[in-house]
Amino acid sequence: MCSSDLMDADDREVGKITEDSMLMATLRRFLNFIPQSFHMLDRNDNEVATFHGNFNPFVLKLLVDVQDDCTLSPLLVLAGGILLMAIEGRQS
Length: 92
What we know:
By secondary structure, the chain is α+β, with helices and mostly antiparallel strands. Helices cover 29% and strands 35% of the residues. It has two helices and five strands. A five-stranded antiparallel beta sheet has the order 1-2-3-4-5. Strand 1 and strand 2 (13-19) form a beta hairpin. The longest helix is centred in the last third of the chain and has 18 residues, at 74-91.
């Protein structure tokens, strides 16, 4: 599965963002109409947020669902969503 590490100011891993599956990630590279889904995990691999993309050829939209017991900063979740949308916008 594709994943990106989330680091703090002291270069320690505090979590990661992963795609839903490697097969779907590969298909999305060729078929742009399949919406993306990502999971944000903390350092203990507990899911703290999910990101679901919506298919719209004109506007990038992302639904963010943050768990009630999220141990990461809300700003880090927001930054993760903005980064995902920026990457998605460059790929289209």
